[in-house]
């Protein structure tokens, strides 16, 4: 129940931010499709270069960055409400 | 005075806009569902050399036609069907003629195949045909060879019309129900298809509850919403069928579910939507099925039902221990609703600007990489001209090039070294991420 309440507060806060933020889409669909296409084409060169390892490394790094930045933002927001820390700038 | 003038001109302007809007309602194109003509009740038919001929007569109430829709109750495709659209009256010579429109004007002819992978199939003529409102027209169809499946027409929903009682095989091969609608320009309204979608448990789910609920949603064409049913089938880890249960579904859309108590283990399940026999027992077929969903039942997972299983609750200390566990569970273990709410919020945040600038890119890259399969069959080629003067692509580098040059052992070592360098580069990037904070 306590965790539920904490999650509810966090969800409500995120929903509030989401409501305020616009939903602009920066990346054109063609560009995102292009990324998928390029990655599939690069995979062909696995015979000469360890593309499989490269893909694993990229996915690991992206996951790390996402988790790290998320944790950093959450801590900064909490510190902002506590009145401590260096502000909300990333 | 100036204000009065302003009000006057404003009134004139708004009045003009209002008049234009109201005037526009008198023109334009109104879509009317009544323009959809069901001609299935005016059919007649004949046979010739085992081929089945059928005719649908109708009088159009609009001046053009561009597509037809076939409604089927089977998932097997039809064989090639010759289709004619004629103007005039059906004549008795049409019944035995090998050509259509013996006494009418041929407007359109083509050989088509009705795709029954979905319950309805729209066939587009690719053009619009001018028609005279109120005149007599008819469609004619027949199978292109013996025992092919022509479109049967029906005088009522439960009887199949045929002039071909001698060729019982034709009946056996015919599984296309005669629902046969014509649509006019820009007025096609899609019929609700037969669909079934699994809701829970989906693949990779871990069920900690003593009961597992199997839930699907379904849709059916409204015109056929009678006594159909969903079959739930459960298999163990070795694909042995453990359970099969049938749930009747009558409405055109909704949920169907069953509940089962399952022991711990790995399972998979699927559900199929069936229609009950309408006629000739040809409709008792699977219409659509869900994908197979794999899940695990593990009641040792944190669960209020069995959280005290390993505690002797007959003793006071055991009861205290159990109460403590249950209190902690009640206090700190989040419910599915909360986690779902958090997940939805997180998804919404990812889709909002400026976060979508980052997540849109990373998601596209992640999906692209995940769906790409690296293999060692690629080659690097260069163009050459052979002795006969033709351009050819000659392979200059492939998977065996490096082993031929430095040996397989060294190639493996070289490849592994590059992999380790990639991980080292990643570690350096992560170090930089920390460093710049």
Write a short abstract of this structure.
The complex is a heterodimer of chains A (90) and B (437). Chain A has 90 residues and is mainly alpha-helical.
Describe the structure.
The complex is a heterodimer of chains A (90) and B (437). With 90 residues, chain A is mostly helical. Chain A has one domain (2-82). Helices cover 72% and strands 0% of the residues of chain A. Chain A is built from 3 helices and no strands. Chain A has helices at 2-20, 29-42, 51-82. The two termini of chain A are 32 Å apart. The mean pLDDT of chain A is 85. In chain B, strand 19 (380-385) and strand 20 form a beta hairpin. Chain B folds into 4 domains: 34-183, Sandwich (Jelly Rolls); 195-297, Immunoglobulin-like (Sandwich), CATH 2.60.40.2550; 305-334, no CATH class; 377-415, no CATH class. Chain B is flat. The two termini of chain B are 67 Å apart. The model of chain B is unreliable at 20-51, 72-77, 145-180 and 277-283 (pLDDT under 50). Chain B is α+β, with helices and mostly antiparallel strands and 437 residues long. The chains are: A mainly alpha (90), B alpha+beta (437).
| Most extensive interface, chain pair and sizes | A-B, 51 and 60 residues
What percent of residues of chain A are in strands?
Answer: under 5%
Look at the structure and give the mean pLDDT of chain B: 70
- β-strand number of chain B: 20
Oligomer: heterodimer
Helix content of chain A: over 70%
Number of structural units classed as domains of chain A: 1
Q: Given the helix and strand composition of chain A, which structural class is it?
A: mainly alpha
User: Based on DSSP secondary structure assignment, what is the total number of beta strands of chain A?
Assistant: 0
- CATH topology description of the largest domain in chain B: Jelly Rolls
Which range best describes the helical content of chain B: under 10%, 10-25%, 25-40%, 40-55%, 55-70% or over 70%? 25-40%
The separation of the N and C termini of chain A measures 32 Å
Q: Provide the domain count of chain B.
A: 4
- Structural category of chain B is alpha+beta
**What is the distance, rounded to the nearest whole angstrom, between the alpha carbons of the first and last residues of chain B?**
67 Å
Q: What does the largest sheet of chain B look like?
A: 6 strands, mixed
Please tally the helical runs of chain B, counting DSSP H or I stretches of 4 or more residues: 8
């Amino acid at each position: 129940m306590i965790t539920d309440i904490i999650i509810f507060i966090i969800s409500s806060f995120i929903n509030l931010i989401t409501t305020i933020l616009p939903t602009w889409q920066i990346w054109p669909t063609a560009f995102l499709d292009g990324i998928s296409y390029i990655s599939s084409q690069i995979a062909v060169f696995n015979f000469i270069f360890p593309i499989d390892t490269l893909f694993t490394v990229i996915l690991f790094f992206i996951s790390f960055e996402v988790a790290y930045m998320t944790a950093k933002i959450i801590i900064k927001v909490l510190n902002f409400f506590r009145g401590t820390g260096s502000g909300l700038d990333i | 005075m100036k204000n009065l003038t302003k009000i006057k001109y404003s009134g004139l302007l708004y009045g003009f806009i209002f008049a234009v809007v109201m005037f526009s309602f008198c023109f334009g194109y109104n879509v009317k569902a009544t323009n959809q003509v069901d001609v299935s009740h005016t059919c007649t038919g004949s046979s010739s050399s085992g081929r089945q001929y059928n005719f649908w007569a109708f009088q159009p109430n609009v001046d053009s036609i561009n597509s037809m829709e076939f409604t089927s109750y089977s998932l097997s495709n039809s064989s090639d069907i010759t289709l004619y659209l004629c103007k005039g009256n059906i004549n008795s010579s049409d019944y035995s003629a090998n050509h259509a429109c013996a006494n009418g004007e041929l407007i359109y002819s083509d050989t088509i195949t009705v795709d029954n992978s979905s319950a309805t199939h729209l066939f587009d003529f690719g053009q619009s045909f001018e028609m005279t409102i109120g005149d007599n027209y008819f469609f004619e169809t027949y199978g292109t060879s013996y025992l092919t499946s022509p479109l049967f027409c029906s005088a009522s929903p439960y009887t199949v019309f045929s002039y071909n009682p001698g060729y019982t095989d034709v009946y056996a091969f015919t599984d296309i129900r005669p629902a046969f609608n014509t649509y006019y320009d820009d007025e096609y309204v899609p019929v609700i298809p037969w669909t079934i979608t699994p809701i829970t448990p989906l693949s990779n789910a871990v069920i900690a509850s003593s009961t597992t609920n199997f839930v699907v949603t379904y849709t059916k064409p409204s015109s056929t919403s009678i006594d159909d049913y969903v079959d739930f089938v459960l298999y163990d880890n070795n694909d042995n069928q453990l359970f099969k249960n049938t749930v009747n579904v009558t409405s055109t859309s909704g949920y169907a579910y069953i509940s089962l108590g399952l022991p711990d283990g790995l399972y998979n399940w699927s559900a199929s939507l069936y229609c009950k026999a309408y006629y000739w027992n040809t409709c008792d077929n699977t219409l659509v099925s869900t994908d197979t969903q794999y899940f695990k039942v593990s009641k040792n997972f944190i669960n209020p039902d069995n959280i005290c299983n390993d505690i002797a609750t007959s003793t006071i200390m055991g009861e205290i221990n159990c109460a403590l566990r249950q209190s902690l569970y009640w206090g700190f273990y989040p419910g599915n609703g909360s986690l779902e709410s958090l997940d939805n919020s997180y998804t919404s945040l990812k889709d909002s600007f400026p976060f979508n600038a980052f997540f849109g890119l990373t998601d596209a890259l992640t999906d692209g990489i995940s769906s790409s399969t690296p293999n060692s069959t690629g080659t690097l080629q260069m163009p050459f001209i052979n002795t006969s003067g033709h351009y050819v692509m000659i392979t200059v580098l492939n998977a065996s090039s490096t082993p031929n040059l430095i040996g397989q052992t060294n190639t493996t070592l070289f490849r592994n070294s590059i992999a380790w360098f990639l991980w080292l580069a990643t570690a350096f990037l992560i170090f930089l991420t920390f460093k710049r904070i």
